[in-house]
Protein: Tubulointerstitial nephritis antigen-like
Amino acid sequence: MWLRPRGLLLLLLLAGQVALGARRGRWRRELAPGLHLRGIRDAGGSYCQKQDLCCRGRADDCALPYLGATCYCDLFCNRTVSDCCPDFWDFCLGVPPPFPPIQGCMHGGRVYPVLGTYWDNCNRCTCQEKGRWECDQEPCLVDPDMINAINQGNYGWQAGNHSAFWGMTLEEGIRYRLGTNRPPSSVMNMNEIYTGLGSGEVLPTAFEASEKWPNLIHEPLDQGNCAGSWAFSTAAVASDRVSIHSLGHMTPVLSPQNLLSCDTHHQQGCRGGRLDGAWWFLRRRGVVSDHCYPFSGHEQDEAGPAPPCMMHSRAMGRGKRQATARCPNSHVHANDIYQVTPAYRLGSNEKEIMKELLENGPVQALMEVHEDFFLYQGGIYSHTPVSLERPERYRRHGTHSVKITGWGEETLPDGRTLKYWTHNASRKSR
Ligand SMILES: *[C@@H]1O[C@H](CO)[C@@H](O)[C@H](O)[C@H]1NC(C)=O
Ligand SMILES: *[C@@H]1O[C@H](CO)[C@@H](O)[C@H](O)[C@H]1NC(C)=O
Ligand SMILES: *[C@@H]1O[C@H](CO)[C@@H](O)[C@H](O)[C@H]1NC(C)=O
Structure:
């Protein structure tokens, strides 16, 4: 274990590299308190051993970087106040260290005390005895293994890391990022409307609402960690339709918050809600613009009370309604109430949906969202089997609702045609 002649050459080379630092170190070495008495000792660390370094007497070059300082593998370090590398006694002397290692763990060049923690994506790691980290084992919403599997699997879409999702568990993603309750059978059994599609009628192979109705199709709002897609998607479709049907005289972005806070009958705000209830509210009560009644926040404290309703409307004759309060927002005064005509259900025939979109504007769709959807970055999304081999807790899904703004098709290398819907011009799914 002591330096062999061959090792000496290596050591000299090493020493050449750290010459400057070592000279400064010599001065500091004599004055600095011992590394270990300061409470830092990397219990499991391999230093002298890793470099096969042990020196007799005093050898200031017989040193290694240690947690932003320097530790030594020479006999001189074995003083009352010691700056030996943690494994000096074990490795160079073959004896147990003169003082017990202070318990702690290393991570990223830092020492953490016992019970110290850090976050590894969505999992908390806690320092245990003997320098051992113990990390939670929750499936994370952004899973680098899943991203790689999707990108290598040629599924027709690209996966990536959405920084807003980093650090969340899959469970939290399903709980906070979706938020549409499955409609009861009374809604699913509603009569379907037929658009009167002629049997020989040919629809374009691609369509985008924002091209037919420039400036009348609104960008999606960000629901953040509010499981209120029921309110966001309904307000989004209604905003576009109000704009289209008024021929651009009104182009409000309708307020999801007005729905979240005020449409409370059988609805749970940022904990989910139903589309039929949202449409009923928009027709009978109406909502103000998002400008007037802005979204109050992305983080919803589940335990805390939901924000109270800050806007009501009352009838003013001829089916019209007016707001009973000012905008909950001091710099906007326009508190017009917007109402919509009754919602109707389309069948699942794609041609019917296309014709409706083409003639009347964006439509709302329910969508079952699976774990891989949170990684979508581009291409034509379809649910992939990449999580099939993993334990069940990696395969989760929840119901979501979205605004569909168009459609298109793409010819694959093998000649097949893939049709897709667009959620706005850039997001596609089969
Ligand atoms: C190292 O230091 C301890 C405590 O001062 C002493 O008992 C021991 O003999 C020293 N070991 C060597 C090899 O010098
Ligand atoms: C994902 O994004 C977050 C936030 O930007 C970043 O901290 C993290 O390192 C990224 N993870 C991967 C695997 O790229
Ligand atoms: C679609 O959405 C993305 C992201 O929100 C946005 O950057 C893009 O401009 C949108 N495109 C259209 C045409 O709405």
